[in-house]
Amino acid sequence: MGFFILLVAVLVLYLLFTLWKRGCAGGGQACYILDYECFKPSDDRVISTEFSGEIMWRNKNLGLNEYKFLLKAIINSGIGEQTYGPRNFLMGREETPTLPDTISEMDEFFNDSIGKLLARSGVSPQEIDVLVVNVSMLSTAPSLASRIINHYKMREDVKAFNLTGMGCSASLISVDVVRNIFKTTNNVFALVVTAESLSPNWYSGNDRSMILANCLFRSGGCAMLLTNKSPLKKKAMLKLKCLVRTHHGARDESYGCCMQKDDAHGRLGFYLGKDLPKAATRSLVDNLRDLAPKILPVRELLRFMVARAVRRLTLTSSKKGSGGGTAGGGGGKAVIDGIGTNLNLDEYDLEPARMTLHRFGNTSACSLWYELAYMEAKKRLKKGGRILMVSFGAGFKCNSCLWQVVRDLDFDLEDGNNTVWKDCIDNYPVKSHVNPYLKKYGWLSNEDPHTFKLPDHL
């Protein structure tokens, strides 16, 4: 009895401290998203099942076991038939990329999406005060931010930030950069540009922990226009309520589970280790522990704390089970499933993530915005609604933020933004996630390693 009285007292004190902390942390400038534009590459960059097979067969370092592994990974990935890749892949030069390949991949996105966003919003490039660009796997000189400034002829006093190496959680880091600038500077327009460069990052070896990345990542990008101008708040789409960043880079296990490195033969690739699921879970738990007091009502927070305490008491004498194995299709369907289980989300909640993965693949840091565009296209975003974004990245990082919908966002297929879903939204959600790979390449599973030979037509 005494223990429970003490527990209640601690909870009350904790809640009072949280409320006091919220009050002290108030103030500062608001952060609004006025508009955003997701990039849809041209149709000649579509990666179909047939072409995926062709590019896989071109890797002469793969054997039957690696082909079987890739077959299983692709089938379980949740990726569909209409994703996009860089042009050098489609031209058969994935192993010999050039600098113009990488630059042109970025220019296609910059020139299309930024131009559409600024034109639709009525904001000229010269009105942009802050530019934040994040492309993790490409660093050029001059920077990509400078390239955008030159193309759009922005002002000489624009504050430019170019982020690399931040992984799939980079877009929320970019938003955080803008948020902190907004706290000290009034009446600002900020442009956030998020994408990933695939052209120079194809892995040509046979290490299973590195060839998996070839199956999952696809081309994409998003440009966002943010502001703290009070007169524009009624025109805004979303208002940032809270943003929390968690970094486990000090843990060797977390730091090394997801990184760019050479394989045993000196071939550069992106390594996804067996400790990745454990690192992701741990970072998510720590992130939500910091986020919960900032976004949950006091009643829900109290329920959460009591349930957590009771669960700990129940499990005190129980033997802890071992962690699960490496999730199949890391960064794909299995990750969505894991988040859904841990956050107790139903299929309706998970639908935007699943359908975005099916239509566009894993587009790294910009995946969040394709999912947001899906919700808008399905007319889910109503005034007062709240959107929780959670992203993971190498390092290992977990970043999250909460947005509030400022006004009803009634997507217009003809005049609305985010035309990436315009031609296909009525076909979603898809009824089946079965990848055609199984039908086309399922014969691999029955092959004998000693007599295996690729058919002549491949």
UniProtKB/TrEMBL annotation:
One of its GO terms (molecular function) is fatty acid elongase activity. Pathway: Lipid metabolism; fatty acid biosynthesis. Residues 351-404 form the Beta-ketoacyl-[acyl-carrier-protein] synthase III C-terminal domain. It comes from the Eukaryota. GO terms for biological process: fatty acid biosynthetic process. CDD domains: CHS_like. Keywords: Acyltransferase, Signal, Transferase. Residues 1-25 form the signal peptide. Belongs to the thiolase-like superfamily. Chalcone/stilbene synthases family. PANTHER family: 3-KETOACYL-COA SYNTHASE. This is 3-ketoacyl-CoA synthase. The lineage of its organism: Eukaryota, Viridiplantae, Streptophyta, Embryophyta, Tracheophyta.
